[in-house]
Amino acid sequence: MLQRVLLGVMVFGGVAVAAPLGYTDIVMRILNFLLFMGILWYCTANTFKNILATRRAKISKSLEQLQEERQAAKEEKEQALRALEEAKQQASQIVSNAKQEAYLLTQKSDQQSKTAIEKLIRNHQINQEKESERVQQEAIAEVLGDLFEGAKAEFATPTYMHLIHQKVAK
Q: What sign does the dihedral 150-152-153-158 (CA atoms) show?
């Protein structure tokens, strides 16, 4: 670096000598400024380098920390997405099971209803048959009772049958 400054002084020094006398003031000021900057750079270069290196290290550390946080956030997001997908699968499984259970329950209740209806129909038919037999027996008993209590007349079998049919038909 010092070599560059000295080279600059030599180049501008040659220009300063070749320039007319009225313009030498500005050239000297430039040379003084460059010499001042060179000395300043020479004295403070290590300090600036250390400051910049420290700043670079802080930025690098901050960048690494941000990348780690980004990676952690990305992993959390992936984990949350997996949990969401699993929850969706469980929800669809629950809905499927509920539909299947509802279908089975309706089938079961339909079967129970059919069985109960068939049982009621059978009981009703049995009750009708019993009631019909009871009514017939009462009618026969009434006709026979009237005949035996009445005139004690003797009738032929077709006459008995005709009287019984008339009584039952009422």
A: positive
Cα angle at 24 between 19 and 27, to 5 degrees? Answer: 95
Answer for the pair 1, 41: CB distance below 8 angstroms, yes or no. yes
Q: 65 to each of 55, 71, 97, how far by Cα in Å?
A: 15, 10, 47
**What is the value of pTM for the model shown?**
0.42
Give pLDDT tens digits for 3-58.
776 676 666 666 556 555 555 688 888 889 999 999 998 899 899 899 999 999 99
Cβ contact 155:147 at 8 Å: yes
The span from the CA of 64 to the CA of 56, in Å, is: 12
